[in-house]
Amino acid sequence: MKLIIAVVQDKDSNRLINALSHENFQTTKLATTGGFLKEGNTTLMIGCQDEHIDEALKIIKENCSQREQMVAPISPMGGNADSYIPKPVKVEVGGATVFILPIESFFRF
């Protein structure tokens, strides 16, 4: 058995959860915050049998698209002026960061 931890953008989370549910994958949703953009994202924990890993990864890939987004300048007030971005810039967002961990035991009470 494996535990899939998928960090996805909030905009993709509902679509992904619905797609996983449709294929009988049970998920636990955690609200998390990204470091670079300081925006909300969603971390999903998905328990899955080894033989279903590829199917789960395919669903994640199909439902978490990468796209470009304009990021507004971040004010240096109270922060480090060295990292100040004076004008909006395009950054790539979306997609998914996925970790797969082995599970030694699993209990449901």
Structure write-up:
- By secondary structure, the protein is an alpha+beta fold.
- The chain is built from 2 helices and 6 strands, in the order βαββαβββ.
- It has helices at 10-22, 53-63; strands at 2-9, 27-33, 40-48, 66-71, 89-94, 96-102.
- The strands form 2 sheets. The chain has a 4-stranded antiparallel sheet, with helices on one face.
- A hairpin with a 6-residue loop joins strand 2 (27-33) and strand 3 (40-48).
- Helix 1 (10-22) crosses helix 2 (53-63).
- The longest helix is centred in the first third of the chain and has 13 residues, at 10-22.
- The model has no long low-confidence stretch (mean pLDDT 83).
Q: What is the terminal-to-terminal distance?
A: 18 Å
Overall, the morphology is: elongated
Beta strand % = 35-45%
**Radius of gyration of CA atoms, rounded to a whole number:** 17 Å
Q: Secondary-structure element order, as H and E?
A: EHEEHEEE
Number of helices: 2
Largest sheet: 4 strands, antiparallel
**Unreliable stretches covering 5 or more consecutive residues:** none
Oligomer: single chain
| Strand order, sheet with most strands | 2-3-1-6
| Mean pLDDT across all amino acids | 83
- Helix and strand content put the structural class at alpha+beta
Query: Which range best describes the helical content: under 10%, 10-25%, 25-40%, 40-55%, 55-70% or over 70%?
Result: 10-25%
